[in-house]
Structure formats: C-alpha cells, structure tokens
Amino acid sequence: MATFGTLSDRLAETFKNLRKKGTLSASDIDGTVREIRRALIDADVAFDVVKEFTSRIRERALGDEVSKALNPAQQVVQIVNDELISILGGEQRRLEFAKTPPTVIMLAGLQGAGKTTLAGKLAQWLAKDGHTPLLVACDLQRPNAVTQLSVVAEQAGASIFAPEPGNGVGDPVRVAKDSIKHARDKQYDTVIIDTAGRLGVDAELMKQAANIRKAVDPDEVLFVIDAMIGQDAVATAKAFQDGVDFTGVVLSKLDGDARGGAALSVASVTGRPIMFASTGEGLGDFEPFHPDRMASRILD
Ligand code: GDP
Q1: Cα of 191 to ligand 1 centre, how many Å?
Q2: Interface ipTM
Q3: Does the Cβ of 255 fall within 6 Å of ligand 1?
Q4: How would DSSP label each residue in 146-158?
Q5: Which of 89, 165, 184, 293 could form a disulfide with 273 if both were Cys (CB 3.0 to 4.6 A apart)?
C-alpha cells in the first residue's frame, strides 16, 4: 500500500535507532516521541490527534512497562502499535444489517471521493456473501452520475433503481423513498443509496443528504473520504458528521501516494469507525478495514 510509505519508513528508522540502545533513559524516550510526532505531522495527521497520540505514548513509555521490560525498545514499539490501533478505531466494526430487510446503506462524501465506485464494490462484496443488493441513483446533480452507476451496477452484477427520465427527476428524496418500496416488493435485501457530492462542502447538498437520511432512516450512513485530501480531511469529516451524522467511514484511494494523514485522523476526530478501505479503481479493490492490520502495515 503506497499510502503510509514515508511514515512507515520514518517510524522504522526511529525504531531502528531505538533498538541499538539497551536500557532507555527518559531523554531517549523524549527523543523518540519527538521523532514520532514529526513523522506524523509530516504525514498530515491532524495536530490534535498527533498531540494526544504522542502524549499517550510518552506517558506509557516512561512508565513501568518499559523500564521493567526485557527488551525496552520492543516494548515501546508495542505501545506505539497499541495506540495506533486505538486511534484507528480499536476493534473492527462490521456492517449492521437490518432485522427486517432491506438493510439500507447510504453513501455520502465529496464529489470524486469514490462513492459511486464504492457502491459497486459494496454490491459485489455483498453479492458474494449471498446478499441481493439494489443500487439506487440519488446523485441527480451530475448528468453522468446515473449512467456511471448503471455501469458499475452491471459490472457488479447488481440491479439499479433510478428515476425514469421525466419522472421524479430532480427529487432524490423521492427516489430514495421509492427505492425502499421497490426493494421490498422485489425482495432485494440491501439497498445502497448513492448521493450527490460537490467538490467542496455545500450547504444545499448537505441538506439534501440530510433529507434523504431522514426519509429512509438508513441502517448505515457511510462517509467516503479520499485519503489523498490530506489536511482537509478533518474539516470535511466534521462537516459531514454535522450534516448527516454518518455511522462509519470508508477510506478510498489508499493505493495512491497520500501521506496517510486523513486515514489516521478521521476515526479519532469523529469518533466513528473506519469500516472499509478502497485500494484501487477495480470493484475487487476493496476490503473491510481492520485497525490492527493497518497498524501492523504502518509499523512493518
Ligand atoms: P464519486 O464522485 O464520489 O461518486 O466518485 P467516483 O466513484 O466517481 O470516483 C472518482 C474517481 O476516483 C473515479 O475515476 C474512480 O475510478 C476513482 N476511484 C474511486 N475509488 C478509488 C480507489 O480506491 N483508488 C483509486 N486509485 N481510484 C479510485
């Protein structure tokens, strides 16, 4: 995974130097914590997250668990690993399915974040697991969006629900509501609602997304965020949290050469778990997110 490459290398260097030492003095630990702090800031991790993360590491590293350890350096690495898992959300969080189908999953995020692609990825992933997903086109803002979703649906072998031209076009709330009835009638067990996004956070579209949310009461609202957006990640995530109160995060474009800051900040600043990671344009480039595995990749 290209993302985190530099951060990973920097942390590896820090730990290599630390391992050369036997016992660790308080100043060794301070020096290490400083290097970790710089590496995270350079990786675009939000400042508040860096501050909290490094102060937790420092506090634990100065305590008994390191001074009494047979291998103090290894113990520090273990602490960093634990704390990384913690800022990435702790336990893996799986999708919540409705007790009575259909399960409704709504996607929200900026334009270009990867929502439409994600709709296809999720559909394919769910279908493999025996589900019958229905993709719903509620991005009626971009002329091309419905066509794009049809292409993705076909690739995923899933059905699509979209407004007939001239029939309800322009009213995504209505389309979303109708899609649930359609899913019930035709026995689709999962409804995946693609919504419109702008390049920047936009009050009107946020209201539209909030209205869709209110109308269909989804089981999950997934906020899709492009890992490449770096420093803007926190403000964007907070705006969507206020606007649509998402239940989980999907990180997209983790295959790019982003510095990883978005990934490391978003769960922590919103308190919402990262549930999936997208790692390419293909529908198979997608996986459930495991905080512990991601931490290991970063510290590899
Ligand atoms: P939307 O506007 O949020 O619906 O975003 P799209 O799904 O249309 O994605 C925008 C662009 O990003 C498209 O060219 C996708 O092929 C691409 N894309 C989406 N997810 C990923 C990913 O995980 N990795 C890469 N490299 N590209 C992606």
Answers
A1: 20
A2: 0.99
A3: yes
A4: HHHHHHHHHHHT-
A5: 89
